Amino acid sequence: MSCIISIGRKEKMKKIFIGVALLAGFVAITGFANNQQRYQTGDIIFQTTKGKIALVTSTATMSRFTHVGMIIMKKNKPYVIEASGPVRINSFRRFINRGIGKKFVVLRYKNGLNKKQKRKLIREARRHIGKKYDSKFKWDDKKLYCSELVFKVYKKALGIELNKPEKIGDYYSSWNPIISRYAKKKYGKRIPLNEKIITPERLYDSKPLNTVYSNYFKLN
Q: Which of 153, 66, 150 is nearest to 107 (CA)?
């Protein structure tokens, strides 16, 4: 009899455990879906990533954020167009999964965007799909890096300049020996100090943008 009672208790506990697990999964999925509904086409999403380019970006430009993309809504679901490798559109989930701790910040143009403006952003963004990543951070459109893509899409589609571009030379004095060696390897003896540059941090500091969502942690 005691054996039967013991088995019964185990079965009951097993059912409770499965029920709790399913409920937790449902809450997680529902929470993720609800979070997706808060976004709009044109929202700009920031994160900190790992890797060589991320390390160079954060060290050379003193940026907390190393990557940025622009959200495009399709059938009420957010996707992110980004220059990470070739310019491409990724799922929202895949984008945030690459960030350290899955942390990210979403900013929105505070004056709001109408449907026509959003269509223009999508059309301009799609025009760059397939372009290679620009590891030399040049200002031409042949290749693009992440923050350059977002900046130029807004500028060319809507005439909105999210922030003033800086110059590579503005950061030169803060470079450590590792970054200096990387720059010499990329550019040779003549580092283009007058080349325009727009960093993820510079976009984040844009006055026309407001925070929509953040689960970000402090890196300082």
A: 150
